[in-house]
Amino acid sequence: MRIGKRRTIRHAQQLGLPEDVVLGLPRLVLHGNTSMTLENHHGALEYSSTHIRMRTNLGTLTILGKDMSLTRMGRHDMMLRGEIKTVSFDGAGDTGRAAGSNSGSNASSDTDADKRR
Predict the structure, then answer these.
(1) pLDDT tens digits, one per residue of 29-80
(2) Fewer CB within 10 Å: N-end or C-end of the chain?
(3) Are 114 and 86 in contact (CB under 8 A)?
């Protein structure tokens, strides 16, 4: 961990601020398997009723499911409803790609990796 990041975490702790907010980390709240709220995202890369890919500071967040729809899409938060089956990060960090710049989703490889675990 970089010294600047450690210092930021220490200051957040001293001030009683949540580390995820100070560091801009994504916050994910699952409500069973029927809805999800995501805060601190950097935009949608792909969206369909079966998969959604979102940019975050931790990488691309992939949500796989059935009959999914975005019920709210704000600048930094979103909410979706539907049958959520899989949620995964690719871990590459925020790539800075614009929405639609990577049309070839690797969502199936994420699912295959989950099956091997």
Answers:
(1) 999 999 999 999 999 999 999 999 999 999 999 999 999 999 999 999 999 9
(2) C
(3) yes
